[in-house]
Amino acid sequence: MKPSMEFRTKKILFITAGIILLGILTICSFFVGKYPLTLSGLLSGDALQWRVFLTLRASRAIIGAIGGFVLGVTGFVYQTVFRNPLASPDIIGVSSGASAGAAFGILFLTGTMAITASAFAGAICCVILVLILSSLSSSKDGRSIVLAGIAVHSLSQTVLVCLKLTADPEKQLASIEYWIMGSLNGISLYSIGGNILLCLICLAALFLLYRQIILLSLDDQEGALLGVNVSRIRLVVLLTATLATSSVISMTGLISFLSLLAPHGARLLLKNNRLSTMILSGILGGCLLTLGDLLARSIASTELPVSIFTSLLGAPFLISLCLRRERAR
Amino acid sequence: MNLLIVNNLSAGYAGKDIIKDISFSIEAGKVTGVLGPNGCGKTTLLKATANLLAHRGSCFIEGQMLETLSARTLSGLCGYIPQRSSISIDLTLLDVVLMGFNPDLKLLQQPSRQMKEEALHALSMVGLAHRKDENFQHLSEGQKQLVLLARTFAGKRRLLLLDEPESALDFRLRYQAMELLRSYISKNQASALVTLHDSSLALNYCDTLLVLSNSRLSGIIEPDRTPISRMERLLSEVYGTVSISVLMNRSKKKQLIMMKEDIS
Predict the structure, then answer these.
(1) Residue B139: exposure state from Cβ atoms within 10 A (0-12, 13-18, ≥19)
(2) Phi, psi (rounded to 5 degrees) for A110
(3) Does the pLDDT of residue A311 top 90, yes or no?
(4) DSSP string, A122-136
(5) Cβ-count burial of A112 within 10 angstroms (0-12 exposed, 13-18 middle, 19+ buried)?
(6) Which residues on neighbouring strands pair with residue A162, listed in sequence order?
(7) Per residue in A157-176, is it b (16+ CB within 10 Å) or e — as a string?
(8) Distances from the Cα of A115 to the Cα of A102, A119, A179, A190, B180, angstroms
């Protein structure tokens, strides 16, 4: 009654390798950066080193691992629920809502926490608007959500452009652009507690709902006759995934490509959609974001946007996996 | 005892009725076939019966009004096999069959070991147990149909609604699938409503046949009892002039064969 040995070995191999890689990258993330930290320094209780560790490095490492994990898992969820391999948080307006919210925060509020909260609120508003619009449509299936998502996406892009027009080009406009490009820099350990907690709760819920997520990949009629209350469960799953995504990107800004890529990587490696594939999506997401962030802070003398590196690392990875699969056929 | 009673069912799309005023009932332990030309509303009838489509009229399953049941209760009683499954992601055959247990599971509950045994047994009934870990997407259309059949068997539903289960199957598998269906129905005292295109399967494996033409139920055939002349008349309305002969195969089993008469 077990899956074939071959699959079990492969699953254990990939997940263990992934966890080890994520662990190594996270440890690197603690110690790589402009200010040199050493293990001996931390152990001997060097006050300055500890301050750098707590205010700069720890939060970065945690967000890299957990944020990447969340983006990977929610990418898997969106792709499955929308039955669309190209689905990502953009599709239901999360990213554009967060950008508009962040721009609003940068213009009218002060402090990073306020900007984070504003971005979060923007993302959630957009998603709720999408879900309301789609529930008004007569065909209540996944497609109406996608259509509403595209409409709300362009609406919030317009809001964003208007906000940019009113921004002071010297400072505010630059901050908005930087926010949109995404970075794990300058997030303090003390301000992320709530977001991380929300992420963990949502992740736990999504893993528990795994069986329902797979059932949502059927069309609505087939799902209904397998006893799935399709519209209600889809709403719960999408809201949970969106809460998690919003709480990540409201801290980091937009991180391109990651949600799209990590689940494809996991599926190409494991060749199915088991719970282990969902976990591996998360692990790959965490590795990719942490690695991207390590490069973003160490390649040039200034901080670079992390999206450059997630795309730069991700695209060749995906292409090589596709090529490998073609050969294997 | 009637397991399913359908009263004055009318349904369709965009305000236009595809089926009008159809009434019939199915006893437990019986297989009922639905015959009719393309587009006459066979699928619409199944979907309306399963409450997947807005309709007028009402259906009763084991005495309960079907329209009032929750999706969950309904799916616990009634299994539906679509013409094509909408499964679009990579899943193993065992995972697909395990979906059939969803009505018996709580929201967050995982299938038990016993359910996995039963799912494997259902797969072995359709001869695919040895491929349980293979990807559903790599199967042929006919094999996919067999897996869906296994999924419905595993769930032990009382009423099975099957939409052209034979359409993608080869000659041998058609008969095998109908044998499986019959033995499931008699073993579990369940009932099946099956739309079919293959007339010899319909005439030899169904206890009752509903003949649809022009959106209405034009007649009911009981292959064991209805006189041949009446069957010919009803089926000629649907398919053009046909004749029905009773033949014996070499093992002396009687078979009804329908033949086309107006071929030049």
Answers:
(1) middle
(2) -125, 150
(3) no
(4) HHHHHHHHHHHHHHH
(5) middle
(6) none
(7) eebbeebbeebeeeebbebb
(8) 5, 6, 10, 15, 63
pLDDT tens, A34-65? 777 888 888 888 888 888 888 888 888 999 99
The rounded distance, in Å, linking the Cα atoms of A86 and B164 is 33
Interface of B with A in 118-137 (CB under 8 A): 120, 133, 135
Q: How far from the centroid of its chain's Cα atoms is residue A5's Cα? A: 32
Residues A284 and A72: beta-carbon distance below 8 Å: yes
Question: Which residues from A are below 8 Å from B107, CB to CB?
Answer: 209, 212
Distance CA A63, CA A319 (A): 27
Gap between the Cα atoms of A281 and B20, Å rounded: 50
Element (H, E) at B34: strand B31-35
**Residue A244 token pair:** 């998690």
Could you tell me the pTM of the whole model? 0.90
Flag whether the ipTM exceeds 0.90.
no
CA distance A253 to A120: 10
Contact A209 B108 (CB under 8 A): yes
DSSP classification of residue B12: E
The radius of gyration of chain B's CA atoms, rounded to the nearest angstrom, is 19
Q: Do A225 and B74 touch (CB under 8 A)?
A: yes
B67 close to B58: Cβ distance less than 8 angstroms: yes
CB A273 within 8 A of CB A80: yes
